[in-house]
């Protein structure tokens, strides 16, 4: 394959990289006064990358026949679907970000540039078909994430969040590298196709250890139990827009990377890793639900909610079938909309002096002060709980259906039972907002941009979202078929 074709298939990463470098120069020359302009251009670049990714999505075959740079990178329907979610999520977060930092005069032009480079790394993660490419994309995303977590340099919580994320992220990277070295040692290849062929010929105990180490490192990136310990602290300490970003776009990238890794190079040995995934899925559901019950800080609660939802997504992975992958992608798409909507609502919760409100005590009686905001949160929380007829129910339905079809009836039954626990803390939002007496004054207005993002997310989560079931089902099925076509 010639380089021109390879450059075409990697055009989103190249375009975002060039945009990031150009905007970095603008930030250096113009300083922070260019922050809003840089943000607008970054949002446009992300939407442009999303549109280009949609164009690569070949709905006729489910895969774009694109193996770039000697099969180090694959432009297929799976990667395109994940990239659309990543780029749209990053753009949505950027839209609602500036107001949070401008209140304390801390918004700098480097912020959107970091988001662009993070998006480049995430795009490489979901399209990588070689362990080296995967690691480069992972570290490119992680390095900018460490900076974003500690972006408020004068805030001790933000600095602590960045340090914790960096230390534990470095540990996870080391685990992944060790696993990669074992896999390479026992297969003689870092390419996914070569690894799968070697495993089909011989799958030794040493190779199993390599698979376990790689999956363990990836479990940290998606904050699955027992590698979840960093999530509540980082989510609480990082600036709220950064937390919204961590809970959406990087989650899609990490889960997409895990799905491709499990189904492509390790797909022939599903029985070897399925038990690990089942344990992590059930443990994440239970720990996420129980951990959230006693939380008073809303960001920490949503962190445990994120852990809980990762467990449901991993049920689709445990099925190890195209239907399971399609179910996981469907849940992931719905989860992104629910998460961005929830954090946008949190960003709109401000005291009259501009202070952000982050605890249950702050939102007591919210329905009397900001009824539209309270009802929007109600819809999002019910959707996260999987209560019909809201669209969040559909995400849980498809992953449980995939598990049953894969003869994992017990896993589906336990997952359904455990999901009832999570309903408790989501209902607590409703109780506090609609039945408690107000204790704090709440800012009466919010920017139009915030209402637009929140309105779109709520509309998707409403019963209107079921209009998306047919196209979403087709797209995710074709994305899952990418693995079958590649094999």
UniProtKB/TrEMBL annotation:
Keywords: Cell membrane, Membrane, NAD, Quinone, Translocase, Transmembrane, Transmembrane helix, Transport, Ubiquinone. Pfam families: Proton_antipo_M. InterPro entries: NADH-Q_OxRdtase_suN/2, ND/Mrp_TM. It is found in: Cell membrane; Endomembrane system; Membrane. The chain crosses the membrane at residues 6-26, 38-57, 77-97, 165-187, 207-230, 275-294, 301-320, 332-351, 372-394, 406-427, 448-468. One of its GO terms (biological process) is ATP synthesis coupled electron transport. It is a multi-pass membrane protein. Its EC number is 7.1.1.-. One of its GO terms (molecular function) is quinone binding. It comes from the Bacteria. One of its GO terms (cellular component) is endomembrane system. Residues 128-422 form the NADH:quinone oxidoreductase/Mrp antiporter transmembrane domain. NDH-1 is composed of 14 different subunits. Subunits NuoA, H, J, K, L, M, N constitute the membrane sector of the complex. Belongs to the complex I subunit 2 family. NDH-1 shuttles electrons from NADH, via FMN and iron-sulfur (Fe-S) centers, to quinones in the respiratory chain. The immediate electron acceptor for the enzyme in this species is believed to be ubiquinone. Couples the redox reaction to proton translocation (for every two electrons transferred, four hydrogen ions are translocated across the cytoplasmic membrane), and thus conserves the redox energy in a proton gradient. This is NADH-quinone oxidoreductase subunit N. The lineage of its organism: Bacteria, Pseudomonadati, Pseudomonadota, Alphaproteobacteria, Sphingomonadales.
């Amino acid at each position: 394959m010639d380089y021109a074709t390879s450059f075409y298939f990697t055009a989103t990463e190249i375009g975002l990289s060039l945009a990031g470098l150009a905007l970095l120069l603008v930030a250096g020359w113009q300083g922070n006064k260019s922050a809003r302009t840089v943000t607008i251009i970054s949002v446009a670049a992300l939407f442009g990358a999303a549109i280009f990714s949609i164009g690569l999505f070949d709905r006729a075959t489910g895969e774009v026949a694109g193996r770039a740079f000697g099969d180090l990178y694959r432009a297929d329907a799976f990667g395109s679907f994940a990239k659309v979610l990543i780029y749209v999520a990053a753009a949505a977060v950027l839209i609602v970000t500036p107001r949070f930092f401008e209140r304390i005069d801390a918004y700098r032009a480097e912020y959107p540039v970091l988001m662009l480079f993070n998006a480049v790394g995430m795009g490489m993660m979901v399209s990588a078909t070689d362990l080296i490419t995967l690691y480069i994309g992972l570290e490119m995303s992680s390095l900018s994430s460490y900076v974003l977590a500690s972006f408020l340099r004068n805030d001790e919580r933000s600095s602590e969040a960045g340090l914790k994320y960096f230390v534990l992220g470095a540990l996870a990277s080391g685990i992944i590298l060790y696993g990669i070295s074992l896999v390479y040692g026992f297969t003689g290849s870092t390419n996914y196709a070569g690894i799968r062929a070697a495993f089909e010929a011989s799958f030794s105990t040493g190779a199993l250890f390599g698979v376990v180490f790689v999956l363990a490192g990836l479990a940290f990136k998606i904050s699955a139990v027992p590698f979840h310990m960093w999530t509540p602290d980082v989510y609480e300490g990082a600036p709220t827009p950064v937390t919204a970003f961590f809970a959406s776009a990087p989650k899609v990238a990490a889960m997409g990377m895990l799905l491709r890794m499990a189904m492509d190079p390790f797909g022939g040995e599903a029985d070897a890793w399925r038990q690990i995934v089942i344990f992590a899925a059930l443990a994440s559901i239970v720990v996420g639900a129980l951990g959230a019950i006693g939380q008073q800080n809303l960001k920490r609660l949503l962190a445990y909610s994120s852990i809980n939802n990762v467990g449901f997504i991993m049920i689709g992975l445990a099925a190890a079938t195209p239907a399971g992958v399609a179910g996981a992608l469907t849940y992931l798409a719905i989860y992104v909309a629910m998460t961005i909507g929830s954090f946008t609502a949190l960003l709109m919760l401000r005291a009259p002096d501009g202070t952000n409100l982050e605890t249950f005590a702050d939102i007591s009686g919210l329905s009397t002060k900001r009824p539209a905001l309270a009802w929007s949160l109600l819809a999002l929380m019910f959707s996260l709980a999987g209560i019909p007829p809201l669209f969040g129910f559909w995400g849980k339905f498809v992953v449980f259906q995939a598990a049953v079809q894969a003869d994992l009836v017990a896993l589906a039954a336990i997952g359904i039972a455990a999901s009832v626990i999570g309903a408790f803390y989501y209902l607590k939002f409703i109780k506090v907002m609609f039945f408690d007496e107000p204790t704090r004054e709440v800012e009466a207005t919010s920017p139009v941009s915030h209402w637009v993002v929140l309105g779109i997310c709520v509309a998707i989560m409403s019963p209107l979202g079921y209009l998306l079931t047919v196209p979403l089902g087709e797209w995710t099925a074709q994305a899952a078929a990418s693995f079958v076509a590649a094999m």
